[in-house]
Each structure stands twice: as structure tokens, then as C-alpha cells.
Specification:
This protein is α+β, with helices and mostly antiparallel strands. Helices cover 24% and strands 27% of the residues. It has 3 helices and 6 strands; from the N terminus they run βαββββαβα. The strands form 2 sheets. A 4-stranded antiparallel sheet has the order 1-6-5-4. Strands 2-3 form a two-stranded antiparallel ribbon. A hairpin with a 5-residue loop joins strand 2 (26-28) and strand 3.
């Protein structure tokens, strides 16, 4: 078996919303950094968009039933077609949103 490269995207907007709502997939480490625990599912067959993997928040085992499955992104085998990079204005706006949020830490 050889290594394979997959690419995809994660919805930062959904991540921030779940972080603000204190989803159990988020933890704060001793180094002060926030981590998001995920599950990556490799599908037997690609979906109608060619995605062969799905990314899901990994809830704490005590909260899995209450929080349910929440998908944050998808991946496909690398045949990179080139999405457009984020602009400086969009980066600034995203950082402002994070800086002005009511994050629980």
C-alpha cells in the first residue's frame, strides 16, 4: 500500500459556532492552545461530488448521543483543480470575528 494525498475543506464558520456553544470536541491543552478532536471517515464509494472522506466532530463519549453527528468537511483524492485563495480582506474579517467573539475561554 502506498501513501495517498487527499485534500478538502473544513467549514470554519461551523467550527466557531460549535466552539462558542461549548461542543465537547474542543479541548484546551496545558500549552493554552485549543484543539478540535475529529473523526475522518473514508467512504467505500465517493459521493456525487467526488468526496471520498468526511470529517466529523468527535464528541466526548459521554456526550455523543446528545450532541449527535456533526460534519464539518469533506476530502477527495488529490487531483487538485485549484480553489481560490482567501483574500487579505477576508482574512482580516475572519480574524476580527474571532477577536470580537464571546468565546468561553
Amino acid at each position: 500500500m502506498e501513501n495517498e494525498l487527499f485534500y478538502g475543506s473544513i467549514c470554519i464558520t461551523d467550527l466557531l459556532e460549535k466552539l462558542k456553544n461549548k461542543h465537547s470536541a474542543f479541548t484546551k491543552a496545558a500549552n493554552g492552545k485549543i484543539y478540535c478532536n475529529i473523526n475522518v471517515w473514508k467512504n467505500v464509494e465517493p459521493d456525487k461530488y467526488g468526496n471520498s472522506m468526511s470529517i466529523q466532530l468527535n464528541s466526548h463519549k459521554d456526550k455523543r448521543e446528545a450532541e449527535g453527528k456533526f460534519y464539518i468537511g469533506n476530502c477527495k483524492k488529490s487531483e487538485y483543480g485549484g480553489s481560490q485563495p482567501i483574500t487579505d480582506k477576508e482574512v482580516s474579517a475572519a480574524i476580527d470575528d474571532i477577536d470580537n467573539s464571546d468565546l468561553p475561554f
